[in-house]
Amino acid sequence: MAGHAAPRIIQTAAGMLNAIGLQNVGVEEYLEHKLPPMRRYPRCNVIVNVFGYTVGEYTQVIEFLNQAEGIAAYELNVSCPNVHAGGMAFGSDPVELEYLVRKAREVAARPLIVKLSPNVTSIAHMAHIAQEAGADAVSLTNTFLAMSIDVETRRPRLSNITGGLSGPAIKPIALRMVYETAQAVSIPILGMGGIVTPDDAVEFLLAGATAVQVGTASYADPRAVERLAKGLESWCRSHQVERVAALTGALDIPRGQ
Ligand SMILES: Cc1cc2nc3c(=O)[nH]c(=O)nc-3n(C[C@H](O)[C@H](O)[C@H](O)COP(=O)(O)O)c2cc1C
Known about the structure:
Elements: E1 9-12, E2 15-18, H1 27-38, E3 47-50, H2 55-66, E4 73-77, H3 88-91, H4 94-107, E5 112-115, H5 123-132, E6 137-140, E7 144-147, E8 149-150, E9 155-156, E10 162-166, H6 171-184, E11 189-191, H7 198-207, E12 211-212, H8 217-220, H9 224-238
Helix pairs in contact: 2-4, 4-5, 5-6, 6-7, 7-9
The structure holds flavin mononucleotide.
């Protein structure tokens, strides 16, 4: 996939707007050239983000990936807001989501994480549907549909006109969605959306996430993930928390609230 024409990334207040259009080299090229260097880090697990325009394409990509070694899990991207078909179209329709996840689960030889769209009325409901269709975990959130306009030219700043908003600007909303989803499912949740500091990560864990992901922060600081992993460790040490897992869902809601 060639992706969209530039400009496809715009900086916003406390965030970033992108419409990359899922540029990628395709699954065969990925397995030959992209996966091997990633496998050189023995302490790291590789989770492959999977996309297709149709159910058949999703399952075909998974079947290719099944044949490779060194992949820990698949993350089904049903939430990209920047493609004309597939992606968010699946993540925002309960019937389509259920069908796709069931078909993907049938072929996937590895754990299946379903990456959900925040551009729905109830992400918790969609998470429940994914769970019932066989998802082993859900990840949320993907980016929020958004746009930016240059008032001098009166033109949209992104060539795709609209894009997906990420970064600290979305954190409180993404956090609320993780919290609501944690009430609706029993499978693990991978939380994300604007995580920059160890405290941000702890918030997502307390809201019910089992693990967290970091996207936008890595654009500002390519070592953000390393810094966060170390920061989370020191946070746990200074708060007498023995295992990060102890934080999952450990939100303290005062009585009567
Ligand atoms: C430039 C860019 C590219 C992205 N590409 C993908 C993608 O290919 N698949 C996907 O599931 N999510 C993609 N995302 C969404 C992120 O993985 C993440 O869900 C979202 O940005 C919120 O987290 P963050 O605020 O830490 O970036 C992308 C985000 C950005 C900013």
